[in-house]
């Protein structure tokens, strides 16, 4: 089978190679709970583009295959797999557990993938496969953010990065919960973000610095929560001017880089107010995907209540260009690689 591998560390253009004779995973045995999937589409992660450059190859791990989530169809399944996953041809979304791609190189950017049934969810055959491939990463992250915040009807929420892969789902989920949503993105993405249902739109390129504008406009009607998909430290530092004392900034972005973001997280969560700490809650967490969440999100899509925006779909041979698109940080929704040629 074909699979993208990373023999060396560096930018995607020099680090990735398309192997054409990579061993296809074996079919699951009768007693196994695994399933063998023919991959249709893979949604790329911004974090993977960084890891390709940063993480060295570890000894005894074999070729390093990137990526975490996919859409595809069942080829074979063990008898212990969930009943709804045993029929060949069943459309599914699936995810690799995070330590696999990072530590062992067992990613999913390949024509066939074998995974435990606990990491696979059936989807309706009518769901478009490119969009479906982004359900788990974007959706599970967005779900955890609004659940952590406790977003509900009557709340006013600021979504920073509302045109991105997670932000675009956040806007929709917050609206489904009855919240008023203010979306922040560049002016070129205004039509897209308004189409997702925001109540107000802010073009950050016209209102810089953004915290000054927010303080001027929302001091008398502060936000209940700020959901930051970008990672702006200034947005949190200045938040008392536009965020309720009972509110919180929930951040998943790393705009200022990994090391600086790690420092900011420690500062934001541990520094007491009497030493200059910001008198607002700050929350940042990892977001391992969950099968139950994927099933819930797939139902919302089937019902027409949620959509996963796709920025661009690249062919399997053009995966390097897909990573270059991710690196621009300008993608409107998911960047997807179509693995199957048919």
Automatic annotation (TrEMBL):
SUPFAM superfamilies found in the cross-reference section: GroES-like, NAD(P)-binding Rossmann-fold domains
InterPro entries for the chain: ER, GroES-like_sf, Lipid_raft_assoc_Zn_ADH, NAD(P)-bd_dom_sf
Residues of the Enoyl reductase (ER) domain: 12-337
Coiled-coil intervals: none
SMART domains with a match to the protein in the record: PKS_ER (SM00829)
Family annotation (PANTHER family): PROTEIN AST1-RELATED
Protein name according to UniProt: NAD(P)-binding protein
Native species: Aspergillus cavernicola
Lineage: Eukaryota, Fungi, Dikarya, Ascomycota, Pezizomycotina
């Amino acid at each position: 089978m074909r699979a993208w591998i990373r023999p060396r560390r560096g930018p995607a253009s020099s680090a990735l190679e398309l192997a054409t004779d990579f061993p296809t995973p074996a079919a699951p045995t009768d007693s196994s709970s695994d399933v063998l999937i023919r991959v249709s589409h893979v949604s790329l992660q911004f974090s993977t583009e960084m890891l390709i450059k940063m993480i060295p190859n570890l000894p005894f791990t074999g070729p390093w295959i990137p990526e975490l989530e996919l859409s595809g169809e069942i080829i074979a399944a063990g008898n212990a797999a969930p009943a709804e996953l045993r029929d060949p041809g069943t459309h599914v979304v699936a995810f690799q557990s995070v330590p696999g791609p990072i530590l062992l190189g067992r990613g999913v950017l390949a024509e066939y993938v074998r995974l435990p049934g606990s990491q696979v969810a059936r989807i309706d055959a009518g769901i478009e496969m490119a969009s479906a491939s982004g359900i788990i990463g974007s959706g599970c992250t967005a779900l955890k953010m609004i659940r952590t915040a406790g977003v509900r009807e009557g709340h006013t929420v600021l979504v920073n990065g509302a045109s991105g892969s997670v932000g675009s789902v956040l806007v929709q989920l917050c609206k489904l919960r009855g919240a008023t949503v203010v979306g922040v993105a560049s002016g070129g993405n205004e039509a897209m973000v308004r189409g997702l249902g925001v109540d107000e739109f802010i073009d950050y390129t016209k209102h810089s610095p953004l915290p000054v504008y927010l303080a001027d406009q929302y001091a008398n009607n502060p936000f209940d929560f700020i959901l930051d998909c970008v990672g702006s430290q200034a947005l949190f530092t200045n938040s008392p001017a536009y965020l309720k004392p009972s509110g919180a900034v929930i951040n998943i972005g790393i705009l200022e880089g990994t090391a600086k973001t790690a420092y900011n997280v420690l500062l934001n969560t541990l520094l007491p107010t009497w030493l200059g700490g910001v008198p607002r809650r700050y929350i940042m967490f990892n977001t391992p995907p969950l099968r139950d969440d994927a099933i819930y999100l797939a139902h919302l899509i089937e019902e027409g209540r949620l959509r996963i925006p796709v920025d661009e779909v690249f062919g399997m041979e053009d995966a390097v260009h897909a990573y270059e698109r991710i690196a621009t940080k300008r993608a409107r929704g998911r960047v997807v690689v179509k693995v199957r040629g048919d």
